[in-house]
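Justification of resources, computational component.

The compute hours requested in this renewal are based largely on the per-chain cost of generating structure records like the one below. Each record pairs the submitted sequence with a full structure-token output. That output is archived, and it is also reused by downstream analysis tasks.
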Amino acid sequence: MGEADLLPVPGPLAGLLPGGGLRRGSTVAVGVGSGAGSLLFALLAAASAEGAWAGVVGRLGLGATAAAEAGVRLDRLALVPDPGADLVGVTAALLDGLDLVVVAGPERAGLRAGDRQRLAARTRQRGAVLLALGGWPGADLRLHCTRPRWEGVGRGTGRLRSRRVEVRAEGRGIGPAGRGVEVLLPGPGGTVAPAPVTPSVPVAPSVPAIASVPSVPVGHASAVGEAPVARPVARAAG
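The structure output for this chain reads:
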């Protein structure tokens, strides 16, 4: 598989994918949930930065400002927020002329199995990448974010700087267990960044218990190592 057969992805995610990128002609499902929007922007940014044309269908409220801040080239992005009743037709038309087409909420749109098969076939014919934001049975590749947690606040003060997540990949060309990588999404600059290694906390060595001092019976030594104290003996008168 050559570089011409792949769409680039952010560097920290390249190791997850066979060949290091999104294979042209494939269908990719991105799981919804925390981090899904940032992951979508990251994939669009990496592809458009290398000259690819992209389109997003059915994603209401997609902010152009937020996309630009994430590195997406707006001059190479087509937005169709509301495709109406012809989601399949609009998506197919975009696949004819664009490199990467995102379909948001295919489950909500009620796409049938035949619709998915037709769009997947059009994707293979045109050498594009179809990215479904949501479930897509039979997708060649599945990406999702797990274990999200924000960083930057310490001891109740500070500002949220980045979100650490694990991006998981499953599908063709990947082992049954899948692959995962921990990244900052978004990182301090708004893009994907490798997650710094969290230093392990050293375990304090165990302190041996101090042996207890044996008690000394009354009438014996007044202290350990001392001679016993003599006691006067009372004598009876007469």
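The longest strand covers residues 157-171. The chain has a mean pLDDT of 83.
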